[in-house]
Write a sequence for this structure.
């Protein structure tokens, strides 16, 4: 009986050890995810506002989620879906890249807006190739060029329908730049859930709804942008290829309404990390908000470099 009791105790001990080992194996990846999310949460606190983050790296368990299904105002981030929609319509032969588009005096956003197009042609009344308007919109975040494209293709509802058609929900576009300039509250009608922004980036990278030629053109424009230089790209290793679209609002009552950046980060192994970071109604200054985005992107990048594949 003593021998039998001994072996029963040994079986119980062995079973506990096996169970503990299984828990350790299955919790290790969850712990890593939690560690990254905790780090992101600590960084986000410096913004003194609402920070929303999502990311994706296929073949890994990378998890950046911080309020991934909130609806932050996207500001100029909308220009990426706008240009994608336009390229789709070009593929449907409704427009062509080289067709001239008249920049009318009524297309100007006055008294002033960020617009290299409007700065170059203050009186308007010139024809601009559609290709150039698309580049200005997505690469230089040109407000007048974006609204001109929006007018030509038929308005925000056309962009909305296209995003819905390619399976990107969690996106709403109601106003162009003129509407945003005229009403501070309007920007909150244009929102993009971070998880949905990442879904769009993954479509572009992995299963583009556009032709290979137009996808390459779009990514080149996103790579060459000088905007948001201190955001996603801010703390990444020199020479890292980042294809992104930033968005920035004005401020009032001591807060900046929107400081955003979404993009694809090329890893040394050839994979692309998709990440979306939105900072909303934040009291921190410009440099701090940019640094929050940069530090979150770097934390995700560092974790992606060692993520299980």
């Amino acid at each position: 009986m003593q021998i039998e009791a001994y072996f029963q105790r040994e079986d119980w001990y062995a079973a506990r050890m096996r169970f503990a080992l299984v828990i350790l194996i299955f919790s290790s990846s969850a712990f890593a995810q939690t560690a990254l999310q905790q780090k992101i949460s600590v960084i986000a606190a410096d913004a003194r506002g609402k920070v929303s983050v999502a990311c994706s790296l296929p073949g890994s368990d990378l998890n950046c989620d911080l309020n991934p299904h909130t609806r932050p105002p996207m500001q100029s981030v909308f220009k990426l879906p706008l240009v994608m929609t336009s390229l789709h319509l070009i593929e449907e032969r409704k427009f062509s890249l080289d067709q001239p588009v008249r920049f009318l005096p009524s297309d100007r956003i006055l008294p002033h807006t960020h617009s290299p197009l409007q700065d170059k042609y203050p009186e308007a009344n010139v024809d601009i190739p559609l290709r150039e308007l698309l580049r200005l919109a997505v690469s230089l975040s040109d407000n007048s060029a974006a609204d001109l494209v929006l007018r030509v293709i038929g308005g925000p509802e056309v962009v909305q329908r296209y995003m819905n058609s390619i399976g990107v929900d969690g996106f709403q576009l109601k106003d162009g730049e003129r509407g945003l300039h005229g009403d501070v509250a309007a920007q909150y009608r244009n929102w993009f859930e971070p998880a949905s922004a990442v879904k769009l980036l993954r479509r572009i990278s992995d299963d583009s709804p556009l032709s290979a030629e137009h996808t390459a053109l779009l990514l080149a424009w996103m790579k060459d942008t000088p905007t948001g230089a201190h955001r996603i790209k801010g703390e990444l290793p020199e020479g890292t290829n980042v294809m992104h679209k930033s968005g920035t609002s004005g401020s009032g009552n001591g807060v900046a309404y929107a400081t955003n950046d979404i993009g694809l980060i090329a890893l040394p192994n050839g994979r692309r990390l998709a990440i979306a970071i939105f900072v909303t109604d934040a009291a921190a200054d410009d440099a701090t908000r940019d640094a929050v985005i940069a530090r979150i992107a770097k934390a995700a990048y560092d974790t992606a470099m060692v993520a299980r594949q």
Notes: The first helix runs from residue 2 to 44. The longest strand covers residues 255-266. The domain at 33-306 is CATH 3.40.710.10 (Beta-lactamase).
